Amino acid sequence: MDFTYSEEQQMLADSLRRFVESEYPFAQRRRRAREGASFDRTIWSQLAEMGVLGLTTPAQYGGFGEGAASRLVVQRELGRALVQEPVVPCSVMATAILAAHGSAAQQDRVLGAMATGAQIVVPAYAEAASRYRLDAVATRAAPVGRGYVLDGAKALVWHGEIADAFIVSARVGDPATGEIALFLVPRESRGVSVTGYPTMDGQRAADVKLDAVALGADALIGAPGEGVAALAHGVDHGIAALCAEAAGAMERLIEITAEYLRTRRQFGQPLAAFQALQHRMADMVVQKELALSMAYVAAQALDEPDARKRRRMLAAAKVTVAKAGRFVGQQAVQLHGGMGMTDELEVGDYFKRLTMFDPLLGDSDHHTASYAEAMED
Questions:
Q1: Whether pLDDT at 20 is above 70
Q2: Does residue 60 surpass a pLDDT of 90?
Q3: One-letter-per-residue 3-state SS of 160-194
Q4: Residues 89-143: pLDDT tens digits?
Q5: Residue 184 and residue 219 in contact, taking contact as beta carbons nearer than 8 Å
Q6: What positions does the domain Acyl-CoA dehydrogenase/oxidase N-terminal occupy (predicted)?
Q7: Most confident of 61-70, 240-249, 333-342
Q8: Phi and psi for 224 in degrees, rounded to 5?
Q9: Cα-Cα-Cα-Cα dihedral of 97, 103, 104, 108, to 10°?
């Protein structure tokens, strides 16, 4: 896979950077996050017009059919600006699941609407006791007539508060041994209730309760028993996108810190003149470059046919990028001195986002264990 930017990819990166500088000023982002409004319909529509939402959607459904290399370009730029909109859960994860496992009718009805920004669909699979296991599912789908009735609860649904529909995992039949399947559940379905709340990094999540939600047979995504594989496919794409996003956030945080050191003066000279601080900045750059390299590995893993090798590549990337993000974030706070601990500077927003990168889609302990299991297999 060639990660050298093509002319089209460079143009996309440049246009995205200009867009966030002019239409997504950081002061506006911070204000919205503090007011609990992490989603802006106007920004979402503009991202759709730029092709971000339909980037990897197949062309027959109104998308561009691009691959992981182009997605890395986009997520890296979105990460630099800490864009809060639900690009990863909707345009990456849900799109990947529906494009690979959805029925022709589901793809025709939903993928095009997602690419234009008219509909937001997010996965809802985590439960209170599931940790990061995709197969730990207590939600039940009881076959009734030609359809299903869903009962259960999902937790930490990323951007679930503004979703139009959910991709819900549930056990078909027996609540202990039934096969796990995925269902496309419209938000307006009777029995669906959503409770939103803020996350540490200024984004939003939600708990989704399903109380006797009646669905037709056409709500089933794929076949019963394919649910875990379909979810894993979406999570894999989400991990690769998050790695690129984190690398972009680190890149921008280093720029912010370097500018602060050039401006802040101590003992008659800028802090950037002190060799010890130069060494610490150099260490931050090394970690950022390592993270970007592993983001390339994660993107390449999506085309890896060997499942065990793919697991190892994605797990290694997630753990390495999380470690680099913690290092860069902590160093940036320390290099800003006492100001770095306040809520006045942008450095705090980047630090919180990079800290939250670790638990998203599996923390370092989970992926270290996953890597070890793949090695044993």
A1: yes
A2: yes
A3: HHHCCEEEEEEEECCCCCCEEEEEEEECCCCCEEE
A4: 999 999 999 999 999 999 999 999 999 999 999 999 999 999 999 999 999 999 9
A5: yes
A6: 6-117
A7: 240-249
A8: -55, 135
A9: -60
The amino acid present at 127, given as its one-letter code, is E
Please give the CATH number for the structural domain made up of 7-119.
1.10.540.10
CA within 13 Å, CB half, 267: 4
Cα 160 vs. chain centroid, distance in angstroms? 13
CA separation for the pair 92, 99 (Å, rounded):
10
Residue 128, classed as helix, strand or coil, is coil
Reference 74, options 325, 250, 247, 321; nearest CA is: 247
CB 179 within 8 A of CB 171: yes
pLDDT in tens, 262-292: 998 888 899 899 999 999 999 999 999 999 9
Decide if 354 contacts 328 (C-beta within 8 A). yes
**Domain spans of the chain, in order of start:** 7-119, 122-223, 228-376
228-376 folds as Butyryl-CoA Dehydrogenase, subunit A; domain 3 (1.20.140)
Identify any residues that bridge with 181 across adjacent strands, giving them in sequence order: 170
Q: H helices of 190-226, where?
A: none
3-state helix, strand, coil in the chain (%, to 5): 55, 15, 30
CA-nearest of 118, 158, 275, 149 to 219 is 149
- Structural domain 122-223, CATH architecture: Beta Barrel (2.40)
Cα 324 to Cα 245: distance, rounded to the nearest angstrom: 13
Tell me the C-alpha distance between 261 and 272, whole Å. Answer: 5
Tokens, residue 62? 């109104």
CA–CA gap between residue 139 and residue 231 (Å, rounded): 15
The percent of residues in the chain predicted with pLDDT above 70, rounded, is: 99
Q: Which of 293, 275, 288 is nearest to 329 (CA)?
A: 288
Pick from 222, 218, 243: nearest CA to 101: 222
Question: Is the confidence at residue 236, as pLDDT, over 80?
Answer: yes
| Model confidence, pTM | 0.95
